[in-house]
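HUMAN: Please help interpret these tokens:
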Amino acid sequence: MAWAHVPVDTGSPAAGAVLLIGIPGSGKSTVAAALAARFTAAAHIEVDALQELIVSGGRWPSPERDEEADRQIFLRARNACLLADSFLAAGFLPVIDDVVVRRAHLDFYRAAFTGGPLHPVILAPGAAKALERNLARDKTLTTNWSFLETAMRDELADEKIWIDSAELTVEETVDAVLAATGLHAP
């Protein structure tokens, strides 16, 4: 096969995408990586890593009102969906992780991801457990984001898949995600 004729898309797309959401410290990135590792073809799309691609002009979310940071939240969500659509078409199950606590943000993901079913899963170990995890990890956060728990529970209360992972291991949480979404890892 010549390089000019290498097909990227398989003709057998993956069975949708998983969107792991929750507040900082809820275990999204760890669980997303472990979930993706369960499949023979999967990609972990860490939305924080997409933010880090911005070399200049990047604005991380902050508790204060910052319209540019808010715009970039949606920019990185759009880019995550573009990557997810591409991976899905190539036969890889995309597993996206992002801090999503507002209805408008989740609705944006639903509209921007067009490749197949999107399976949002909310990891909700509770604000105290998330703060404990944040304090124990290498990645230092300058803000205590525990207050986002209230907004998430208010705005996303009607979402179907909530997993209280406070007392679950990573592997048990992955099992719970698979059971709740109906996805099957080989």
Remarks:
- The mean pLDDT is 92.
